[in-house]
Design brief:
single chain, 460 residues, mainly alpha, globular, MFS_sugar_transport-like, Sugar_transporter_CS, MFS_dom, transmembrane transporter activity
Length: 460
């Protein structure tokens, strides 16, 4: 027997099933983060082309706010609607339908010529992408291995920020070079949407959703093919009430989960969207001469923040990434409000600090909902929380240009600081630690103790 034969005999047998499961999880992560990439893509370019749209269409401040917030308003509608349908009829059928709707809206951006048309099309797109939150995140959380669930869910936010950054960078390049008008820049989202839509066709149903509907044999068959052994065993441990719908979010067992996720999400995204959508204007008001380039750097730093969160989440835990960034952002905004006139260097430092830390905390908005809402209401839970966050983001985006004009940039920064402070306090009280736990252990985490006792929870 040769050395090669000996080595072959000693080599562990190849587990084909394990390889297949690993490939499936990687593909599912890519497909869901693809939806997030598209969401970031359509939101990232609107701020950079807003001056051109305003000039071409003669937009008033009101129309600027409405168009800037249109996709966010759509998400407000689409998230709860998509979540309800995902809980009612399943993750699988909705996984491709919502992206098909988005594809149509994305293509129509090439042809809009009036303010109301642009508002309507982006509202339509927002509805579809909002539904994708409520379908994709529960689907991935319900398949993912506990040991890496947080990391995989973090990748969704990495995808969002990557889409936002690439869209902003393309818009910046095409605007500066004057090689494309704003219709083309907005319509570029058609390309990644089409690719992800085709790849999503044929995805399997969530075994946990099937179990919640009493379809045990179907669930076990899919689980055996696509889920790791520990997660297959956990299917039998998780309890299912069989009840679904928005009312279930507010019963005693679930109300604290709903409160925590909603406020956590609102306080993360409201200042980001308000400033991000009009970042060139905000930076120039703060004293920077080149707001467009400054915005590009800001978005790149935010992208790095999501990568940091994905790298650290399974090492340091959820709470250490969720809470401190709120307090750091609060300080950064207060410094901007009180000392922005001191130097451009100070402005740049504070804006970059906010961008980095806010991105780290915001990354967990894609982690917590899928982990702590019960399977039967995970879709509507994500949808409701996303809707609440988009109400805050839409209000902030709508009023940002007016606030800068009527109350000044300093007071606008103080309001942003207050929002971050609220997020920090609520997270300090209610944010659970779910690292490494199976879904049967994490569901309903914030409601396992009264709010008054949550003060004793430590960073662990």
């Amino acid at each position: 027997m040769t050395t090669a034969h000996v080595e072959e005999a000693l080599r562990p047998p190849v587990d084909g099933a394990a390889i297949k499961r690993s490939k499936f999880i990687k593909k599912l992560t890519f497909l869901i983060s693809g939806g997030m990439f598209i969401d970031g893509f359509i939101l990232g370019c609107i701020g950079i082309v807003m001056p051109a749209i305003t000039h071409d269409l003669g937009l008033s401040l009101t129309w600027q706010g409405l168009i800037g917030a249109s996709a966010l308003i759509g998400i407000l509608i689409g998230s709860p609607l998509g979540g309800y349908l995902a809980d009612r009829i399943g993750r699988k059928p909705m996984f491709a339908v919502d992206l098909a709707i988005f594809l149509v809206g994305s293509f129509l951006q090439f042809f809009v010529t009036d303010a109301w048309q642009l508002f309507a099309v982006r509202l339509f797109m927002g509805i579809a992408i909002g539904a994708d939150y409520s379908i994709g995140w529960p689907l991935l959380a319900e398949f993912a291995p506990a040991r890496m669930r947080g990391k995989l869910l973090c990748i969704q936010e990495v995808g969002w920020y990557a889409g936002y950054l690439i869209s902003y960078a393309l818009g910046w390049l095409l605007t500066v070079s004057e090689t494309a008008n704003w219709n083309v820049i907005l319509g570029l989202s058609t390309i990644p949407t089409f690719i992800v839509f085709i790849m999503r066709l044929g995805s399997p149903e969530s075994p946990r959703w099937l179990m919640s509907k009493g379809r045990k044999q179907e669930a076990l068959t899919i689980a055996e093919e696509f889920m790791e052994k520990e997660e297959q065993d956990d299917l039998h441990k998780q309890e299912f009430s069989g009840k679904h719908g928005f009312r279930e979010l507010f019963i005693p067992q679930n109300i604290r989960v709903t409160i925590f996720v909603s406020i956590f999400w609102v306080c993360n995204v409201t200042p980001y969207f308000a400033i991000g959508t009009f970042v060139p204007v905000v930076l120039e008001q703060l004293g920077m001469k080149d707001g467009l380039t400054g915005g590009l750097v800001l978005n790149f730093v935010a992208f790095l923040g999501t990568i940091v969160a994905a790298f650290l989440i399974e090492r340091v835990g959820r709470r250490k990434l969720a809470i401190p960034p709120f307090y750091i952002s609060t300080v950064a905004f207060l410094v901007l409000a009180l000392f922005a006139s001191a130097s451009v260097t100070l402005i740049v430092f504070c804006v970059l600090v906010f961008s980095l830390t806010n991105a780290i905390s915001t990354t967990l908005t894609g982690v917590y909902p899928g982990e702590i809402f019960p399977t039967e209401i995970c879709g509507v839970g994500v949808g409701f929380s996303a809707a609440m966050s988009r109400i805050g983001a839409a209000i902030g985006t709508f009023f940002m240009p007016m606030a800068v004009v009527y109350i000044g940039i300093s007071w606008t920064m103080i309001i942003a600081a207050g929002i971050c402070l609220i997020g920090g306090v609520v997270s300090q009280l209610l944010a659970p630690e779910t690292t490494g736990k199976q879904l049967s252990e994490t569901v309903g985490s914030p409601s396992t103790a009264p709010i008054i006792e949550a003060k004793t929870i430590e960073y662990s």
